[in-house]
Amino acid sequence: MNDPTRASLYRDSTAPEAQELSQMQPTRKAHRALLHPLWLLSLALLVVNDHILKGSGLLPGWFTGKLSDFAGLIVAPALLAAMLRLSSTRALVAAHVATGVVFAAINLSVPIAAAVEALTALTPFPWRITVDAEDLIALPALLVAWRVLVPAMRETIEERPAMHRALTVAGGMACMATSYGNPCGEGSLDCAPPEPPIATEAASLVLGNTTDEARLIRVRALKETVDVDCQTMLADPTRTLSRALFGPAETWLVESGRALPLQNERCAAYLVDADGLPMQLLAWSATQFPTAMLSTETRAPDAGRMITLQLDESIGRLELDEHPAVHEAPPLEEAAAAPGCAPAPASVGVDWSAPPSGVVELTAIESSPDGCHRFGVVDEQGNARSFYLCVPASAQPFEVGDKLAATAITSGIGMPASSKEEAIVSEGLLLRSDTHAVVVLRGNAIALRGLAVLPEPMTEPTLDAQVVPACLGAHSACGNLVFPLELSLLGDHVGGTRFLRPGQSVTLENGYGTLHLVRAEELPIRDSECAPFAPAPARRHFESVLVVPITP
Length: 552
Hints:
The chain has 10 helices and 28 strands. By secondary structure, it is an alpha+beta fold. The termini are far apart.
C-alpha cells in the first residue's frame, strides 16, 4: 500500500520528519566500497590478468588487454575517491569523469600517451601505453562502478582501518604495476616475450623513421588561406605549387622506429626536410589515401601508407623512399613565363573608394600614371569632397562640369564568362552622367549593359573564356597559379566573333557600349590573402569596365 505520510516527507524536505529521516542515513565513506565484492573481484582480476594471464598464451592477447581495461575502470574511481577521501556526489562524479577522460586521452592521443609514459618512467612502475581507440569499449565499466560501488559507500559495515589502508595500497600498486608478463617463465633464456601491440593513429599517410637514431623533421603545410584544385595540383605538383604557398615549419622529433602521422581532409601538400635530407614535396588527395587508423611504428607498416625516411650509407645522406606522394620540391626561383602568359602585376585592376550619395557636380579630375583618377565633386548642399576611381584612361569618359550619380553594384550580378559551374560572385560601381554610364565590375563575371539601368533595354552578347593557348600557368609574386584567359564574344551586337585579352577593348554595335577587359585569369591554386582581391575566392577572376554612351 502507498504510505501518504511517507510521500509527504519526500515532497517537503524541510519537514522535521524529513530531516530526521535524512539524519538516519549513514554517512557516505568512499573506503567502504573497497570491501564490496565487485571491487575486490575486479582488483583480483586486474592482478591475475596483468601478471599471470598476459603473455601466457592461455587467452588471446586482445582479450587479456580488454580484461585489464574493464577491471581497471571499476577499481580506479573508488580507489581515487578513497585516497582523496571524497564523499559528496559532485566529487564522486568528478572522480569517475576524470578516470574516463584520462583513459580516453591515452587511448586516442599519442602525445598524451607519451607524456604519461614519461611521467611514470620517474616511478618504480613505468608504463608502456599502446594507443588503441578500440579500448574505449571498456568505458561502460565506469557506469557499473557508479551504480554498484557508490551506493556501497553508505552501507553500514564494521570499520577496519588497517584493512582499508591495505586495500588502498594494494589497489594503487595494482593500477600502477601493469605488466605484459613473460610467457617463457622466470629465468627462461630460450625465447622472448611477444612484442607489444602496434601503436596506431588516425592519419592519411605516415612518415616513418627507419634510421637508427631520432631525427628532427621539419614539416611545412599549405597556409590555411590557400585553396587548391586537386586535379590541377596532382597533375604536376612540383610545377603547380610554389614555395610561397606554404606556412612556417613545424619541427618534430621522430624517434627511431616511429612514424609521424600526416593529415589530409581533401587535398594535402607538405614540404618536408631534415638535417641531411634535401627538401621534398609530399602531395596527395584524400581519395588516393583516405584517413584510417594507421600504424605509427616502422616494424609493422600499413601497405602503401608509410613514407619511409632512410639513410643512404653510400653517400651518407637521408632520403625518402619512392612513393606516389613523394615529389621534387618546387624550385626556389620561378622559371620565366612564356610571352603573353605572365601573371598581371598586383597593381593592375579596377578599384574605387566610397562615392558620394545623391547627384554631385564634377569640379576637378586628376589622373595618375597608374590609372587612378581623383574626382573632386560638390553636392547639392555645396559640400566639397573627393573620391577615387581606378580604371584605364580610355574607360574614363567624364568631364569637369558633369553631373554624376553613383550606385553600388551588389554581389551576385554580372554576365558569367565561364563554362565552370560557379555561382556569380561580384561587386562593382555604376557611375552615370547625362552623356555616359560606366559599369565597373570585378569578380567571376563581366560587366554588362543591363547593370547600367538604362531606359532602352538590349539583349546581351554571349561570352566565354578559355585559357590562352600555349600558356601552362605561372606563379604570381605570392604563389598563386595563374592562367591568363581570352574572352570570346559572339551573338547580338558583335557582328561575328571577337576575342579579347586583358588590356584590350572592343566597341560593340547598336550603341551597346565599349567593353574594356582589365584582368582575366583562372586561379586553380590561390591564396585568398593575395591579389587579385575579390568578394569571395572563385576559380576565375575578371575585372572589366563597360562604357555606355547615352544619347539624348
